[in-house]
Amino acid sequence: MRDLGAGFGYLMKGQRWVAQHGKQFGLGLLPGLITLILYAAALVGLGVWGDDFVTWATPFADHWTSPWAGLFRGFLTAVLFALVLLLAVLTFTAVTLLIGQPFYESLSEHVDLAEGGHAPESGLPLWRELWISARDSLRILVRATLWGVLLFALGFLPFVGQTAIPVLGFFVTGFFLTEELTAVALQRRSVELRERLALLRARKGLAWGFGTPLAVAFLVPFVAVFLMPGAVAGATLMARDLLGEEPNASRGSGQPATH
Fold first, then answer.
1. Which end of the chain is more exposed for a tag (fewer CB within 10 A), N or C?
2. What pLDDT sits at residue 221?
3. Could you give the CA distance from residue 208 to residue 174 in angstroms, rounded to a whole number?
4. What is the pLDDT of residue 11?
């Protein structure tokens, strides 16, 4: 329970940090806005052509008597939209981080400088960092999708499917969101995906406390955009905790180091 509270505390600390550093907050909004526009266009397209796609994909139902064909296709359309919406929530962070890699790297470095007076660097060229980020995000997406399919199937269980399973889904989503966000700081420290997952599994309460409220908030698209910069800042603070890095006492005021 203590780690749950600590994880939520890092989320709040990150939001406060960017609120006190307006330039970093403003730059951090741009990738989220771009991603939101792309996702909104995709969801609008699904809303317009989803029925046609389901009708095309189920020609065997053309000769069913009324109202069964309409009910069946309506159900499939709802399932399709729900799955796409789930994937949108799961992938929003990964896509935003990929688009905004330079912005979020800079933000994370500023947090490290403010907390410890030193910002670790991977030493890799930008194209290599983007490749690693995309590769790891794809691996996380595969894991998250498998969990999503399993939870979706369990959702048909009586009572449990309508109560416990949605809650479990938010915890699973929160864990993967935390991994994606802490990766910004941990990749600069050359921490590989397998090690990052091991760190978070050892502190599941911390990951859930940070990521689960974020997963709930990310259901509201505009909220996700405004929370992303603070989420990256808070995840950097959490990454320091996971690796046991102590804050620099001379920087207790939270001001960045000077050069």
1. C
2. 65
3. 6
4. 94
Phi/psi of residue 102, nearest 5 degrees: -65, -40
Q: In this structure, which long-range contacts are made by residues 21-29, counting pairs with CB atoms below 8 Å and at least 24 apart in sequence?
A: 21/110, 24/106, 24/107, 24/110, 24/229, 24/233, 25/229, 25/230, 27/103, 27/106, 27/107, 27/229, 28/100, 28/103, 28/104, 28/107, 28/228, 28/229, 28/232, 29/225, 29/226, 29/228, 29/229
> Angle 212-180-122 (CA atoms, 0-180°, nearest 5)?
145
Residue 256: both structure tokens together = 């960045």
CB of 132 closer than 8 Å to CB of 100: no
- The predicted structure's pLDDT at residue 247: 67
Q: Pseudo-torsion of CA 192, 198, 203, 206, nearest 10°?
A: 40
Choose among 18, 34, 27: nearest CA to 230: 18
Q: Which residues of the chain have pLDDT under 50?
A: 249-259
Query: Can you read off the two tokens belonging to residue 68?
Result: 């069964």
CA distances in angstroms from 245 to 171, 204, 237, 240, listed in the order given: 26, 19, 9, 5
